[in-house]
Amino acid sequence: MEAIMNALIRTGKKKFGLSFDSENELLIIEITENPEKGKANKEIIKELKKFFKSEIELVSGLKSKKKRIKISLPKQEVLNLLNNTN
After folding, report:
1. What's the CA gap between 1 and 71, in Å, rounded?
2. Which strand ranges, in their side-by-side order, compose the sheet holding 3-10?
3. Of 13, 29, 68, 74, which sees the most CB atoms within 10 A?
4. Residue 23: how many CB atoms within 10 A of its CB?
5. Do 5 and 69 contact (CB within 8 A), yes or no?
6. Among residues 19, 8, 32, which one has the least CA distance to residue 85?
7. According to DSSP H, which parts of the chain are helical?
8. 3-28 pLDDT, tens digit each
9. Which residues contact residue 59 at a Cβ distance below 8 angstroms, ignoring those fewer than 6 apart?
10. How far lies 13's CA from each of 23, 47, 70, 74, 75, in Å?
11. Do 16 and 47 form a contact (C-beta atoms < 8 A)?
12. pTM higher than 0.90, yes or no?
């Protein structure tokens, strides 16, 4: 089972941050990298792999602040992990 989650990316922050808007089922991801030469996408994948301890794939939005992210975990497990971050 896999979960596909919508995400909003905020670039140029001082440190990586992850929060979850449970009402809209939206990941809000703050990253340090700017969107140049794929650096932002690499940071997103690296940090989400650490957080979820799972494989991560960007499904859509490679050049957008709005992305769809595939997490190789059941959706309920993803939601449980995210609800514990807020």
Report:
1. 9
2. 17-21, 26-30, 3-10, 66-71, 56-60
3. 29
4. 6
5. yes
6. 19
7. 39-52, 75-83
8. 999 999 999 999 999 999 999 999 99
9. 4, 67, 68, 69, 70
10. 24, 14, 23, 30, 28
11. yes
12. yes
Q: Which of 21, 5, 18 is nearest to 75 (CA)?
A: 5
| Distance separating alpha carbons of residues 56 and 59, to the nearest angstrom | 9
Looking at residue 26, which CATH number applies to its domain? Answer: 3.30.1200.10
* Burial zone of 8 (CB within 10 Å; 0-12 exposed, 13-18 middle, 19+ buried): middle
pLDDT for residue 83 is more than 90: no
Tokens found for residue 57: 């794939």
Do residues 37 and 26 touch, judged by C-beta distance below 8 A?
A: no
73 is written with which tokens?
A: 């975990």
The count of structural domains within the chain is 1
Query: What is the sign of the dihedral through the CA atoms of 46, 47, 48 and 51?
Result: positive
